[in-house]
Amino acid sequence: MSSNAASAMGADFFAGQPQQFTPKILFTAQAPALSQVIAQPYYINAAFASPSANNPTANSNMAFVFEGGPPIPNGVAAFGSGVCSGTQTNGNVTATPAGNPFYSEDYVMAFSVGPSVTSKAGVTTYPNLAASAYIPGGVGSGEPIQYWGSGLDFTPGGVNTTSIQWTYTLVPGTNPPANNAFIGLWNGLVNNNPYATSPQFTAPILNQNQYTGSSIMNGLGLSVGSQYTAALFTSGYPLTVGAAPLTCIAAWIQFTLLAPSSEN
């Protein structure tokens, strides 16, 4: 990390052991979620919530339905899909089957904060899933639906002058390193819109097949009283210099840092 980058983060350097900080969250963006799921033979409808400042249409938000569950099945094409339209963070989405109707079998519906990806070989993957709903028994079952979402937080005792230990949560079945998931950090509050600019620091999530876990971000220069924004990205690591900012954000927070003896 360059000295200029460290200065931009409001760095304070200490001889010896890095100083421990107590993070204080100033704002937690709305978590992605599905709710009010209705399964019928020719559609599955749900209400969706997406992170604060998200634009579902501009950011290619989608809903996908897979056979099975609760985990998202690996290497399996979606049984159905639907587009999340509109500019508001909350809305409704209807997924229709790609072929045969939905039946009385298990399905899992997933809300995606970005599009699916089809390789040159014609293989489609779904790296941007941020919320899911398991529908046991499918059409007409009446069984309770189970829901999962995404989140970002600090590992207790994991923040010091030069590093942050993050705790992340994605949906069951997610393989973060295969999707190039990562955590990004900005200096400041980025006008309450992390979609508009690329993060200044990044840390890949390296835990194979662990939809929840931790990730370390090193090489920082943090200081008490400064304000920061952090986001959990479902895909896109490493960043490409000069490319448009990524919008596949599953969760984001704003925070400041207190000395260990400070009161929250």
Architecture overview:
Helices cover 4% and strands 41% of the residues. It has 2 helices and 18 strands. The protein has helices at residues 3-8, 176-179, and strands spanning 22-28, 33-40, 43-49, 62-67, 80-83, 90-97, 107-112, 117-118, 124-125, 129-135, 146-148, 151-159, 164-169, 182-187, 201-204, 212-217, 227-233, 249-258. Strand 2 (33-40) and strand 3 (43-49) form a beta hairpin. The strands form 4 sheets. Strands 2-3-6-5-4-7-10-11 form an 8-stranded antiparallel sheet, with no helix packed on it. It has a 5-stranded antiparallel sheet with strand order 1-18-17-14-15, with no helix packed on it. The protein has 2 domains: 3-29 and 150-258, no CATH class; 33-148, Immunoglobulin-like (Sandwich). The model is unreliable at 1-15 (pLDDT under 50). The protein is mostly beta strands and 264 residues long. It is elongated.
What is this entry, summarized?
The chain is 4% helix and 41% strand.
